[in-house]
Specification:
globular, mainly beta, 5-stranded antiparallel beta sheet, Methylamine Dehydrogenase, Chain H, WD40_repeat_dom_sf, RMC1, 364 residues
């Protein structure tokens, strides 16, 4: 895959350069490729190139509705019915135990889905509640989130997502009767998807084909106990890219061509925290952030510092940013104007004072 940046334009949010290629989705396969409901083999591919593909078999206990590995690939969760979920422990890519199960309490309660929040914790989404469990060979319930009944009925639609931000497990909900802590202000309508990369919340707007960037750690305006957040900078599109037709089977009919990828496609599926899947092409990417662009995207220098200090690569970028400010300060200090009449020199201190204020904020 190759980025396609016209006229040198760079984008803050991009897709990973090397996608994971898989057989395009159909009625019988997904990213996990199962044959005969797993008894004839399961093939698993990871977006992390350093992790090899896995091939193993599971017992046939019925049609597989959903299947997900924990982040460390040590526990496999399998949903076969609307009322229960099965688990299988792994070591070195192979099963090492018999399956163990968890069943929803109550005949009317249905399991709508599940999300791994850490390598040992899994969040179960039911028609009645959100339940967080810990897996370690057995299932241990550690807490429960209650939902109003009207919201639970609407949960058949993807109106809630969970995510780990600043080492806390949080729930994001659309128009729900829940206790709000943070509100993201999105100035557009239509379908949305949410990703989380490096503690940054990305809201993808399909109709507008743009992504809004939010950082809950700064910039929020508190009103009635709720922190309201606007995008850190104006919404922009994910960086354009092209795929070589000879690397993607779904594009093989286009001989030796570079095919632009349709961004925000109707075939896109986003999985938290940062996975984007195009089921029609058979490609899986992870989202990347180009934090080097932040000093150009955020005009207020204090906000540049507040944003970068919470990023994994922020310290290195802040050092480069400080170097730039230092060079500008030296230039300001050496700037003066000679009078045409008496030969005196005048010095404009406003620019230098502004630079000194910037340094004072950075190193406070």
């Amino acid at each position: 895959m190759e980025p396609n940046e016209p006229d040198g334009l760079q984008h803050y949010v991009t897709l990973s350069e090397e996608p994971t290629i898989f057989e395009p989705m159909s009625s019988v396969n997904s990213i996990f490729t199962l044959r005969s409901r797993g008894i004839m083999g399961v093939n698993v591919k990871s977006p992390d190139a350093s992790r090899p593909s896995l091939n193993f078999r599971i017992e046939d206990h019925g049609e597989v509705l959903c299947i997900k590995f924990s982040p460390d690939s040590r526990v496999l969760a399998i949903q076969r019915t609307p009322h229960s979920i099965d688990f299988l422990n792994f070591s070195n890519g192979s099963p090492i135990s018999s399956e163990y199960s968890h069943t929803c309490k109550g005949k009317k309660i249905k399991l709508l889905g599940f999300v791994w929040t850490t390598s040992t914790e899994i969040l179960l989404v039911t028609t009645e509640s959100l339940e967080l469990y810990q897996t370690a060979g057995t299932i241990t319930k550690i807490c429960k989130f209650s939902l109003p009944s009207n919201l639970a009925l609407d949960n058949a639609q993807p109106d809630t997502v969970s995510a780990v931000l600043q080492n806390s497990c949080l729930l994001a909900c659309i128009d729900g009767l829940v206790k709000l802590t943070d509100e993201l202000l999105v100035e557009t309508n239509g379908q949305f998807a949410i990703s989380v990369v490096d503690n940054v919340v990305l809201v993808h707007c399909r109709n507008e084909r743009v992504t809004c960037v939010y950082d809950l750690a700064f910039g929020g305006h508190v009103h009635d106990g709720i922190s309201k957040h606007r995008p850190v900078f104006p919404p922009e599109s994910i960086g354009p890219l092209t795929l070589a037709s000879n690397t993607v089977p779904a594009l093989s009919s286009n001989l030796n061509a570079k095919i632009p990828v349709e961004l925000y496609s109707a075939h896109w599926i986003t999985n938290l925290p940062s996975v984007v899947i195009d089921g029609n092409l058979g490609c899986l990417w992870t989202l990347k952030l180009n934090n080097k662009l932040i000093p150009m995207l955020i005009r207020k220098r204090s906000h540049v510092v507040d944003f970068l200090v919470n990023r994994e690569d922020g310290k290195r970028i802040l050092l480069d940013y400080c170097t730039t400010l230092y060079n500008q300060s030296v230039s300001e200090a050496l700037s003066y104007e000679a009078s045409d009449f008496d030969g005196d020199y005048s010095f404009h201190a406003d620019g230098l004072n502004q630079r000194l204020d910037d340094f004072a904020y950075i190193f406070k």
